[in-house]
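Weekend entry, working from home. Most of the wet-lab plans are on hold until the incubator is repaired, so I used the time to fold the two sequences that have been sitting in the queue since the last round of cloning. Logging both here for the record. First:
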Amino acid sequence: MQLTLEQYLDRFSWSQAELCRQADVSEGVVRRALNGETISRASAEKIIEALDRKFREKGTKGHIVMGSITGLQIAGLQRKKSDKQVAADPQ
C-alpha cells in the first residue's frame, strides 16, 4: 500500500510530535518530510522503521518500506532516466 506520510499519521492516529518520538527524529525533519522537502536517508529510514513497527503492531500483513510513502523525498535517491527518456532528450 502506498500512502503519503500524512495519511500514515492519520491512519495510526499519530501527531507529528508522536512520529518524532517514535522515529527519534527532530520536528524539523518531520515538518520537511510532510512538506515534500528532501530529508536525509538516515532520517527517512528512522521514519520508515517507526511506521513499520506500528503497522506490524496493528497486525497488518506486509511492511512499510522505502517506496511505501508517496512523496517522501530522500537525499541521494534520484530516479534514473529510462533509456527511452535518455534517447528522447535533446543534447
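Second, folded right after the first finished:
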Amino acid sequence: MNEFKICDICNEQYVNELKESLSKIDQDAKIEIKCHGLCGIGARHVFVVVNGMPVIGETVAAVINQVETIIKKD
C-alpha cells in the first residue's frame, strides 16, 4: 500500500488539489495530512512524501508527474 504525506501548513493552498490528484493515482493509498517537519522545502516548493521519500516540484502538476513515475516503478 502506498502512503502519501501532505503538509497542511506549507502546502496549505495546494492541499485539496494534491489530495484529489493522489487519490486518483492510488485510491487505496493512505493519505496523511499534517505537518511533516519539512518546512524548509515547503516554504519554497510544492512537495509530497511518497512512501517515505520527499517528492519536490515547482507546481502541483510537476509533483504529481514525479509521483506517477515513482508509483509505476513500485
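Plan for Monday: verify the second prediction. The first strand starts at residue 3 and ends at 6.
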